[in-house]
Design a protein that fits this description.
The structure holds 2 protein chains of 2 kinds. Chain A is mainly alpha-helical. In chain A, 70% of the residues lie in helices and 3% in strands. In chain A, helix 3 packs across helix 14 and helix 4 runs antiparallel to helix 11.
């Protein structure tokens, strides 16, 4: 069967009331569109919509996955998690991780993007090398860093030993474990941020730089007064995406410092959710924790929108 | 029929199709359709699902395939669908299968998991008597699969932890025998510790190379303590428990016989005792396998020995893998037959040999594998001193708190008593939740 598409109605007069969009497209086109969207829509509803809905519902219940029983809990799960010292600690660790990884990696990424936007020999290779950590499996990265952090034969302590400093047990000492995890997070996050900044830099109007040159602006002055302000939409985008990403950090923390790290010194919200659900079988509590994480991301996104961007910036 | 009516009709049709698909999918999540468990002649039949955290890697899969081929020769009307996983992901598999209403027919799980699952009605009573099983296995091994006097799981293989020491280092230090008490362990450890300036080069005793909970528990048991009282009250924060944890903290903080960060479980650098970086340890029997692979001369020259962790009594930590059957299995006869087959002497020995573990079946004591593996043999010879973790339905939740609690004591953030008391308070809350 061949589908025939109805021609779009000709707009006769601007003052004439616009016909409904559906009629304009024509029923056949509309139907074809729905049919094409259907697989993705069903997939989204089934794999994302229902689980999200289930999470919201289960957070307010006592669901015993082993016994298969459900009863209404009201806010009990939320009271329980906020009375839990380890969960509160995990919130703090997540905030600390985000606070250090996002701005630091953004700052490094923007500098690298500016450098790699200049005409350099083998520029593509440098870009690829910096982007590489983003496309490498996090577990593989974490394993390599574990070797480097190894206190007895690891690279870092070997380098420190050369200058007479006894290196710490990076991943086993609670004083250092979070710093080590943050360092890996910063390193891993630079690539994709650099790429976004690079794309944004290539869209900046050259005449502004010519004008700045005529005015005798130095390189740093151009960076601070021209480049950075023009990068604001990209900065907003990178900031929001990085923050969400940082709040959802899991795999590198899980591999580098298993079971929440020494004395829970690196446990983060996602790990606590995982532990509550799959090690302790407390699904409803884990759902409540997930809603708290969701709330954090929502609030932070709204705040960052207020602080650093407007709708047109995103557009 | 006008176009609008036709469109509505089609819309309804589409909605009906999507709705039906959704209901069908929901139905699929609703649990297995009742099936025939056995034929009229009593023979087990049906298609069953098995989830296993052992039989890992290619060699393990091949072994399981050959075992299942043997099983299906015996039970030709049973078809087994296998889901391979590892212990790290087993909980996720079990959780999702239970939440979906389609639990695996046969579940292989660890010691300590049986009470939570049996108490909540997940596992089927296998109808076995303790007496009949005691003839096949050591009674301590059978105990791990029992809940409220009913057998819910059969032992397949054991994971044991006990004392391991370097005979050559002991001889150098003028020590002829392994320690028999906490006091001797500390004294020997101090004597055996070596430093290059301030840098620790050899730990006198290594308490960090295995999971901290699994290191603490044999000390607790050896000191006469237990995790819970017979009436399921928390007991690990008793004076015996505090002394056991104090032993660990004193080794590190007072005697300096080991340092935080010197090693950790599964360290990429291997087991310090095998490398000559520790003189004693509380370790897993698979240390033998590592020696076979990396330092076979330690075995051939008889440089390594095993000892029971002792103080007020002797103790071996006994973990392991058990085979259980879902209470919701549509084919309980077939599932039970498979669980019994996997826990049988032949399959148990083969699985243990492939993984380097201790066979659960007592008859394996005379096998070539056990005779060749000194630590497996040691564990089997001393099963009367074996203790298992768990014992209460909330155990899977409670055990998560041990590592941070022990670490906080080792790091000096809390006293051993405070660390265990806080953990006991959390355990009480977990048990109250049910």
């Amino acid at each position: 069967m061949v589908a025939t598409l109805a021609p779009a109605p000709v707009k006769a007069d601007a003052s004439e009331k616009r016909p409904p969009r559906r009629r304009r497209l024509g029923r056949d086109r509309s139907r074809a569109a729905w049919l094409m969207l259907a697989p993705a829509a069903i997939h989204l509803v089934w794999w994302i919509g229902f689980p999200v809905l289930a999470t919201f519902v289960l957070a307010f219940t006592h669901y015993d996955v082993l016994a298969g029983t459900v009863s209404w809990a009201g806010l009990d799960n939320f009271r329980e998690i906020f009375a839990d010292e380890v969960w509160n600690l995990s919130i703090w660790h997540t905030v600390v991780y985000t606070f250090f990884t996002v701005p630091v990696s953004m700052a490094i990424a923007v500098v690298l993007a500016v450098l790699l936007n200049a005409k350099l020999r083998a520029r593509a290779w440098y870009r690829a090398a910096i982007f590489m950590p983003h496309v490498t499996a996090t577990v593989a990265i974490a394993l390599v860093w574990m070797w480097m952090f190894e206190p007895n034969i690891g690279l870092f302590n070997a380098l420190l030993a050369m200058v007479g400093v006894a290196g710490p047990a990076w991943l086993s000492d609670p004083s250092w474990a979070m710093s080590a995890v943050i360092a890996v997070g910063v390193w891993k996050g630079i690539g994709v941020k650099m790429l976004i900044y690079l794309a944004a830099l290539q869209g900046l109007p050259g005449e502004l730089y010519e004008a700045a040159d005529i005015d005798g602006a130095s390189g740093p002055r151009k960076f601070w007064s021209v480049t950075l302000p023009l990068l604001r939409p990209a900065t907003f985008f990178v900031f929001v995406v990085s923050m969400i990403d940082a709040f959802q950090v899991f795999d590198q923390v899980y591999v580098l410092t298993p079971q929440g790290g020494p004395a829970n010194s690196t446990t983060v919200m996602t790990y606590e959710i995982y532990r509550t659900a799959f090690s302790e079988f407390r699904i409803s509590t884990a759902c409540a924790q997930s809603l708290v994480l969701f709330g954090f991301l929502l609030v932070l996104t709204l705040i960052s929108r207020r602080l650093t961007g407007r709708d047109e910036d995103v557009n | 029929m006008d176009a609008t009516a036709m469109a509505l009709s089609r819309r309804r049709l589409l909605a009906g199709v999507v709705g039906s698909a959704g209901l069908a999918a929901l139905g699929a999540c609703g649990g297995p359709a009742p099936g025939k468990s056995e034929d009229s002649d009593g023979e087990a039949s049906g298609e069953i699902r098995l989830v296993t955290p052992i039989y890992e890697e290619e060699a393990g899969k091949q072994l399981l395939d050959s075992l299942l081929a043997e099983f299906t020769r015996k039970y030709p009307k049973v078809k087994v669908q296998v889901d391979h996983t590892n212990y790290g992901k087993l909980n996720e598999k079990l959780t999702t299968s239970l939440a979906s209403g389609r639990p695996y027919d046969v579940m292989m799980m660890g010691v300590g998991w049986v009470p939570p699952f049996a108490a909540k009605g997940v596992l089927a009573d296998l109808g076995e008597s303790r007496e009949s099983l005691d003839k096949l296995y050591n009674s301590r091994v059978v105990e791990a699969g029992v809940w409220e006097d009913k057998v819910y799981a059969l032992p397949v293989m054991l994971d044991t932890r006990f004392g391991i020491y370097r005979k050559d280092f002991f001889a150098e230090a003028g020590l002829s025998e392994p320690p028999k008490s906490f006091e001797e362990m500390r004294a020997y450890a101090k004597k055996l510790t070596k430093r290059d300036g301030k840098k620790l080069t050899r730990a006198g005793i290594d308490v960090l190379a295995i999971d901290l909970r699994q290191c603490f528990l044999p000390l607790l048991w050896a000191n006469g303590g237990d995790l819970f009282t017979p009436d399921k009250q928390v007991a690990f924060n008793s004076p015996a428990g505090v002394e056991a944890l104090s032993f660990m903290t004193d080794v590190i903080r007072v005697d300096k016989s080991e340092e935080i960060g010197f090693t950790e479980p599964g360290a990429a650098t291997g087991i310090p005792l095998v490398q000559g970086r520790a003189a004693m340890m509380i370790g897993h029997h698979n240390t033998w396998t590592e020696m076979e692979k990396t330092k076979p001369e330690l075995i051939s020259e008889d440089k390594v020995g095993a000892f029971l962790v002792s103080n007020k009594r002797s103790a071996i930590f006994q973990g392991g893998t058990l085979a259980s059957v879902s209470a919701k299995s549509a084919h309980p006869a077939a599932a039970t037959a498979l669980a019994k087959f996997l826990a049988g002497p032949k399959a148990s020995l083969a699985a243990s040999e492939q993984r380097g573990n201790v066979p659960a079946a007592a008859s394996a004591m005379d096998s070539e594998y056990v005779k060749k593996n000194g630590f497996v043999q040691f564990a089997m010879q001393n099963m009367d001193s074996a203790f298992s973790e768990g014992g209460v339905p909330a155990w899977l939740e409670i055990r998560e708190g041990f590592k941070p609690a022990i670490e906080s004591a080792l790091l000096g953030k809390r006293s051993p008593k405070q660390a265990l008391d806080d953990l006991a308070a959390d355990a009480d809350k977990a048990m109250a939740r049910g």
